[in-house]
């Protein structure tokens, strides 16, 4: 040994007895020799140390308030160098600690290592298990995301129903009557301070008691007694490395989940506890209504009480067999209930829709599963979107990440459309096969063509408003020139429409339907209609329209100019009837208002805002408007159909006007057509 090192060790040994401490730790007797079944206690200690180290570094970047908690976790996950790895290790090690606890508990009961004189070892171990479960429960809320917020909400609501102390317990946990800043800070204090301190204290006591009584060897012993070093240390180290490898693999493969910021105004209908609490969640379904207290408190309380009494129950051989039987029932039942909970939630994804002969319960289970899957998919979609927005150049505003959610047309548009518009209008995105073909032809991604929602109305009374690259785009306008679509549910073909037999439908059917019989004439009209559609998309000024994405703007501008000429009279020169757009529509300085909507700025943001605010204005449908209400904000709450912000969000969504992390590849006019 190098002389300076020896001098330091000798000095430490003289003052603190280091050599005796090391010898005491490494040369403990292992009855019957080292065994793999003894590794679980050591791996649990390693897991806790890992949690303590990663937790301290996470604490350095975490800010426990309702306006900064999600934001700081986002920073850790997506901005801080190595933060995703740090958080992933902490997240998955917490879950593996539950597995390690279960394995350690099974080994202790199976080997009878809880019997005298080790009763206190067992009792401190039981307390440690409850503390670890408490750490898992309190840590679930800290990201302050939808999943953690609503799952914790369910848990605390359940705790409030406990006999006598329930309401007071809930108020103490929440820091008041509502979930908010005080709730988060209390859970953080428990998770990062109180419970870890208790765990360290009981862990020290547990280890001291274990060292006092030594390891319990299961008879018959396989070999002579050996020292803890080196064989058992090697086995413990291999097991610890295996656990770390599993945690790292899960972190790299999946990563720790972060949902959208907690939103108390929008419940997360797929809220569930973590997998290790799912058995209790499923168990509660057996005790509906007033019986819930049995499933939530009385039966679990009795089971835990019996578990604490196991050292005395197991003194006899029959008692030990009873403990093993109870162990098998508990873990077998927990596994069954967990599997059943997962099956119930995903029932609709694994089975066909119940037929006419299905029972009411089967139908209810299927519909409940559908609701769960839909809510989960929507939550995952919202989470991806808000993270995309948080990573945008504008980043998270000072008002917090929830502002990103409420100010985003992509997220709020479908919800507002469903609330205000879906009673009459369809919003049906293009079919998957057609979408794939269009994406290939246009040179764009399918994700860019999708608008983020498909809100179908089985009995539409107004036109479909879904357009590739936004309402008013070239493709959307072209549908209105198609004789087979003009009377379909995509345009004017809805039931009892005042326009289904109007001038526009008659004009399209009579003019362009007959033109299809003459190929040369048909080709000429087809090109003319394409140019009109380009001119109208130019009026819409869509930020993500085909014009904005086009590569060849020189040729496109020529088509737009020719389209304008066709709208203002040139179409009549091509058609035998001599009819043109400005015979009914106003377009800038040409034509007059009164018989059909003004095409000036058609489907632009300003045009749509004005139209939705008052469709009966003379610029739009005037006296011909028979059903669409005016959605203009009104001072009288009873007359206020929609506030200005909601109106703008719907319009921006319909026009495809929202932030995109990656711009779609440009497409030529020919490819789009």
Keywords for this entry:
673 residues, mainly alpha, Cytochrome Bc1 Complex, Chain C, 4 domains, two-stranded antiparallel ribbon, 2 strands
Provide structural commentary.
Helices cover 60% and strands 1% of the residues. The chain has 673 residues and is mostly helical. It has four domains: 1-30, no CATH class; 32-254, Cytochrome Bc1 Complex, Chain C, CATH 1.20.810.10; 350-403, no CATH class; 408-672, no CATH class. The chain is elongated, with a radius of gyration of 34 Å.
* Contiguous helical run count: 28
Arithmetic mean of pLDDT? 84
Strand ordering within the main sheet: 1-2
Would you report the number of β strands? 2
Apparent shape:
elongated
**Number of domain modules:** 4
Which sequence of SSEs, written as H and E, runs from N to C? HHEHHHHHHHEHHHHHHHHHHHHHHHHHHH
Strand-pairing-aware structural class: mainly alpha
**Sheet bearing the most strands, described?**
2 strands, antiparallel
Write the layout of secondary structure elements.
Elements: H1 3-16, H2 18-26, E1 29-30, H3 39-61, H4 69-78, H5 83-111, H6 119-139, H7 146-159, H8 166-174, H9 181-213, E2 226-227, H10 228-253, H11 278-284, H12 292-308, H13 310-313, H14 317-345, H15 347-350, H16 360-390, H17 401-406, H18 409-420, H19 432-442, H20 446-449, H21 474-479, H22 503-515, H23 519-540, H24 546-549, H25 553-574, H26 605-613, H27 644-654, H28 669-672
Antiparallel strand pairs: 1-2
């Amino acid at each position: 040994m190098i002389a300076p090192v020896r001098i330091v060790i000798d000095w430490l040994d003289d003052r603190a007895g280091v050599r005796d401490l090391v010898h005491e730790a490494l040369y403990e007797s292992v009855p019957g020799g080292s065994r793999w079944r003894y590794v679980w206690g050591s791996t649990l200690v390693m897991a806790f140390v890992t949690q303590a180290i990663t937790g301290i570094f996470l604490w350095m970047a975490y800010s426990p308030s309702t306006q900064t908690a999600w934001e700081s976790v986002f920073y850790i996950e997506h901005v801080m160098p190595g933060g995703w790895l740090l958080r992933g290790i902490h997240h998955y090690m917490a879950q593996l600690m539950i597995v390690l606890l279960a394995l350690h508990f099974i080994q202790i009961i199976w080997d009878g290592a809880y019997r005298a004189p080790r009763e206190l070892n067992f009792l401190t171990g039981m307390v440690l298990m409850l503390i670890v479960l408490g750490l898992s429960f309190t840590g679930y809320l800290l990201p302050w995301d939808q999943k953690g917020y609503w799952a914790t909400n369910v848990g605390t609501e359940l705790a409030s129903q406990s006999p006598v102390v329930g309401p007071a317990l809930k108020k103490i946990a929440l820091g008041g009557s509502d979930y908010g800043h005080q709730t988060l800070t209390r859970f953080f204090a428990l998770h990062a301070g109180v419970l870890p301190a208790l765990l360290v204290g009981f862990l020290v006591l547990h280890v001291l008691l274990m060292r006092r009584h030594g390891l319990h060897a299961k008879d018959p012993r396989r070999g002579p007694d050996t020292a803890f070093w080196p064989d058992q240390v090697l086995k413990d180290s291999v097991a610890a490395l295996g656990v770390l490898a599993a945690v790292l693999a899960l972190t790299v493969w999946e990563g720790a989940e972060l949902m959208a910021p907690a939103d108390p105004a929008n419940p997360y209908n797929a809220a569930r506890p973590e997998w290790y609490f799912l058995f209790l969640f499923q168990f509660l379904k057996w005790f509906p209504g007033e019986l819930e207290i049995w499933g939530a408190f009385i039966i679990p309380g009795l089971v835990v009480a019996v578990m604490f009494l196991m050292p005395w129950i197991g003194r006899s051989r029959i008692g030990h067999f009873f403990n093993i039987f109870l162990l098998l029932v508990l873990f077998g039942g927990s596994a069954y209930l967990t599997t059943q909970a997962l099956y119930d939630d995903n029932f609709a994804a694994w089975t066909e829709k119940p037929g006419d002969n299905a029972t009411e319960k089967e139908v209810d289970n299927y519909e409940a599963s559908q609701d769960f899957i839909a809510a989960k998919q929507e939550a995952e979609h919202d989470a991806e979107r808000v993270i995309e927005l948080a990573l945008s150049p504008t980043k998270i505003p000072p008002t917090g990440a929830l502002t990103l959610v409420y100010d985003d047309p992509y997220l709020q548009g479908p919800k507002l459309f469903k609330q205000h518009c879906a009673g009459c209008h369809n919003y049906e995105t293009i079919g998957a096969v057609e979408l794939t073909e269009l994406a290939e032809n246009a040179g764009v991604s399918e994700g860019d063509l999708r608008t983020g929602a498909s809100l179908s109305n089985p009995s539409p009374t107004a036109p479909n408003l879904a357009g590739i690259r936004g309402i008013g785009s070239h493709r959307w306008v072209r549908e209105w020139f198609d004789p087979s679509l003009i009377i379909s549910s995509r345009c004017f073909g809805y039931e009892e429409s005042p326009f289904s037999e109007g001038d526009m439908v008659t004009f399209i059917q009579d003019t362009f339907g007959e033109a299809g019989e003459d190929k040369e004439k048909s080709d000429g009209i087809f090109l003319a209609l394409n140019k009109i559609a380009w001119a109208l998309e130019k009026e819409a000024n869509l930020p993500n329209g085909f014009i904005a994405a086009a590569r060849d703007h020189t040729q496109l501008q020529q088509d737009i100019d020719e389209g304008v000429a066709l709208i203002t009279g040139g179409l009549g020169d091509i058609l035998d009837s001599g009819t043109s757009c400005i015979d009914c529509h106003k377009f800038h300085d040409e034509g007059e208002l009164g018989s059909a909507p003004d095409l000036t700025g058609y489907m632009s943001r300003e045009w749509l805002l004005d139209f939705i605010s008052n469709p009966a204005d003379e610029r739009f449908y005037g006296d011909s408007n028979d059903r669409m209400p005016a959605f203009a904000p009104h001072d009288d709450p009873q007359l206020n159909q929609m506030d200005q912000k909601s109106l703008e969000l719907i319009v921006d969504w319909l026009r495809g006007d929202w932030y995109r992390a990656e711009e779609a590849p440009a497409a030529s006019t020919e490819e789009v057509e």
